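user: Please supply your own:

assistant:
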Amino acid sequence: MTRSRASRIAAVAVVAAMAAGMCTALVAAGGSASALPTFSFDRVAGSDRYATSVQVSTAYGDTTTAILVNGSPGNYADALSATYLSGARNAPILLTRKGYTPKSVQARLKSSGVKTIVIVGGTGVVAKKQAEALRSAGYTVSRIAGKNRYATDAKVLASAGKASGSLGIVATGQNFPDALAAGPLAYGGRPLGLATQNGIADDVVSAMKAAGVTEVLVMGGTQVVGAGVVATLKSHGIDLAQRFAGSDRAETSTLAATYAVQNLGFSRTAVDVASGYQKGYGADALAGGPLAGKQNRPLLITKSVDQPGDSVLTWLQGNALTLLQGSIFGGTGAVSADAASQMEKAASGLSLPLPTLPPLPLPTVGPILPLP
């Protein structure tokens, strides 16, 4: 090899090393947080919503009391109310059918050592014959029910007793997604009052006041819980502490999660996720809410089966530096594998691509002079 050729190769090598060093520095300064450990969700799921509630109950732990609610679409309101009761009684929520107790739920009741069962909802949602069958099996069975979901809610609040503080929650009793994220908050001793868009029943207001509530968190915008509801509460001495009103159920859940972490002492290292999909998959969050509450974890609600929602991904990435663990409630029919992968990447700080870098100009190399 001639000295001239060797000198040219050396010059090219220097330029390549300089370019590589600059790229490495740029990635370290402005790239994704790929140095964080890879985040992975555990999935808590059964073959259906009833079996999923069994798996959640198993993770909750053995107790002597369990709460049964109807898990069919359209009957979620009673389960939302029951989350506050769940915390007061240290009892998981198990989902059941109207006419009978699913076999997986029966097996869990037996294996966990349950002695007392509280049914929330009237005989129109959990039939009398089901309660009788459970009594015949040796359980002590009681029922909390009113003439409608709002009257049931008032009775649940009264049965659960005093709040842990002065803070309560108000959510719609007509459409479940916005209210799902409130489950862990309600479990922690914050009574959940159900309202319509335009009003809240007197017995619900009275039950919240009797529990010691003087301020409330409202789940959802004015299109689900109207300004009139807030005004009614105000007239009874209950002020609005915060309204969580996102552009969709996913964003609303992130607003509630941020508040819970910043103001209620919820975990910064763990988060749970459940589906908010309209076609019934939100049922998994009904059983998952008490477990998240017991573990002091915020609960994020996905936009759909396959879409976590931009706000959920943004929240996870924004908290990636502290997040270490989390659970997804429900199978891939509720939160798809692709949605889970998107969320895991976000929680690992990997969801945003590296910025496109302009080409690096090569330094001008003067004429290579022959060695003397």
